[in-house]
Amino acid sequence: MTAFDQLMAFQRDTSALGQIAGRLGWDQETVMPRGAAGQRGQEMAAIEAVLHARKSDPRVADWLEAAEAPDEAGTAQLREIRRAYERAQKVPADLAKKLAQVTSEAQGKWAQARADEDVAAFLPVLEEVVALRREEGAALANGGDINDALVEDYEPYTTSDEIAAIFDTMRPRLVALRAAVLEQPMPKGVVGEFDEGAQMKLSRQLAKTFGYDMSKGRVDKAVHPFSSGSGSDVRITTRTSPTDPFNCFYSTIHEVGHAAYEQGIDQSFELTPLGRGVSMGVHESQSRIYENQLGRSRAFTGWLFEQMKNAFGDFGLNTADEFYAAVNRVQNGYIRTEADEVQYNLHIMLRFDLERALMRGDLQVSDIEAAWNDRFKADFGYDVDRPSNGCLQDVHWSVGLFGYFPTYSLGNVYAGCLYEALRDAVPNLDDQLAQGDTSGATGWLRENLQRHGSLYAPRDVIERASGKVPGPEALLDYIEKKFSGIYSL
């Protein structure tokens, strides 16, 4: 075997172990008994220790030194392995193991504190998570910006200052549009109660409609919807609300976007560094374009309106136009995952600024609730009513995902660019969506983006697919046009 072949064989085993760790996380969020949280933390720590040892194994350096890439994909494999190896070398093994254990335990404590509306019960473990991530960020930054080092985990080759500049461009137009929309009469919404079983049945139908391969996946329920896995085992979760079926349906479509990306990657990349989404921003571009530009379009909602009438009968909306307006209704609300396209990115900007301050030491964990509430009041104009609608609503900080939040808005920016190109490439897109046929759109995305996995750098793959350097203008133009139409601005 050549050095390249030996390195790739070693890497496939490492990736397989990573998938096992991911499956433990999926189990923890879906079916694990609550009392198993402590033991699960030890299990996660043990497997993280093995993974860290493999990622920082000195043989990897030797193989990288000797390996010769056989082709373009091989060159990209070496690039990704080298990047991961260099980062793993900077993080002490004990720190990696401790992070895995603490964040596993913190997840359960967050869920309980959220259920109890008890911020104080969560703060001690959050303090520990923040301290550990600061330590890790400092090790990775090697004298540079801690936030840049943490963002690199989720959006390679992007700095927090670059993200801040994008947000500064977006904020004024979004704030102005939000103000104009909220001055108009609000469209009516659905009324009644919606059977949970019927919601899940239609949810699974929607997953298949958007191309999710159920033979290599499954749909379960979780407190916070997510997608897990890659290759031949990609699972999603959703959640139900007896009075808000859109929460279930659009959470499902969103997570299918993530899952379809993973399922669409070239199978020859399976269990290699190229066999996963290249960044969380690109990942989010898929979930957001599935959920919003496709799933909330006038064409597709006309089809979904008929499916809901068949499933639930009368729910207070009489026409497809009323349904379209209800699906895209802009209203005051606290929850990021339920926010409309006009306000969603404002939720992200709040989190991005707070976590940058936390990592820099400008904001203390003990002050996070007050800081969140003050910023929310300033941005949205009303008070947070309870912690589960405020600083306890998201799972991310409990599991140490500092640097992750901005990728949601980067995904929206990328989706705006992709959608502009998609409409040019599939001129009869609306006709297809009106029949519940997403294959033209999902096929184009699979061919032009998803199949590449991590072959190209994040912004490069967006530019290759869309034909333009990614920027926020396409997204902002799309949002303004759509909501100006709905609200007759």
How would you describe what is shown here?
Broad specificity carboxypetidase that releases amino acids sequentially from the C-terminus, including neutral, aromatic, polar and basic residues. It is an enzyme of class 3 (hydrolase). Zn(2+) binds at residues 254, 258, 284. It comes from Falsiruegeria litorea R37. The protein is an all-alpha fold and 489 residues long. The chain folds into two domains: 3-144, no CATH class; 160-486, Neurolysin, domain 3, CATH 1.10.1370.30. The chain contains 20 helices and three strands. The chain has helices at 3-30, 37-55, 58-66, 72-90, 93-116, 119-141, 146-151, 160-182, 196-209, 245-264, 280-294, 298-312, 320-327, 344-360, 368-380, 406-425, 429-434, 439-448, 458-466, 473-486, and strands at 219-221, 227-230, 233-238. It has a three-stranded mixed beta sheet, sandwiched between helices. A hairpin with a 2-residue loop joins strand 2 and strand 3. Helix 2 packs antiparallel against helix 5 (93-116) and helix 8 (160-182) packs parallel to helix 20. It is globular.
Give a quick rundown of the structure.
This protein is mainly alpha-helical and 489 residues long. It contains 20 helices and 3 strands. It starts with a helix and ends with a helix.
